[in-house]
Please model this.
Amino acid sequence: MRPSNRSPEAMRPVSLERGVARYAEGSCLVKFGETHVLCAASLEDKAPGWLRGQGRGWVTAEYAMLPRATHERTRREVTSGKPSGRTQEIQRLIGRSLRAVVDLRMLGERQITVDCDVLQADGGTRTASITGAWIALHDCLAWMKARDMLKGEALKDHVAAVSCGVVKGVPVVDLDYAEDSTAETDANFVLTGSGGIVEVQGTAEGAPFSEDELMALLRLAKAGCGQLVELQKMAVA
Model:
């Protein structure tokens, strides 16, 4: 059995709580087991400078981890003057994932920024962030639509993400930290509600993984993201 006593295909308990940030146009507190992330979407009535005059908007993301989100305090990145390479990579991933399901032309010359702040980390912070960020984005777009700021449906599909890996020779889904830190293969999958693949990140920590193992991980990811999309649908119904 896994350290959490789950079967290989079993996700951790997942919850999506909307409207948790009073001032944000959209927000969600997402929990994947003991990983908790606050996602807040903010609307700006202007596009980035490099997009101005093109008649379309932009969706981007920022990611951060609170100092005591982990077992030991980590230094706030603001004190070092710039985000780490890991932070930049994750927030770019979140932004790409959200833009994959948004018609940017529908936004007009506006920008939506989704801030993903990790309150507590136990593996899978980036996948939880993407899944919760979709809820925050959905509610921000609904806020805009209620004020006649949108002339149609800007959101084309759901998007969710889950981690998978090979742990002690067994493909498993939704790794917590105990598994993530010892996995022979670690991967993250970002999938749309219709089954499209937005991004796959896969790394062998030791011996290379096989094509059969990759396909086994993809099957687990499809099932896991399918469950997450159903939870998203229930949350915004």
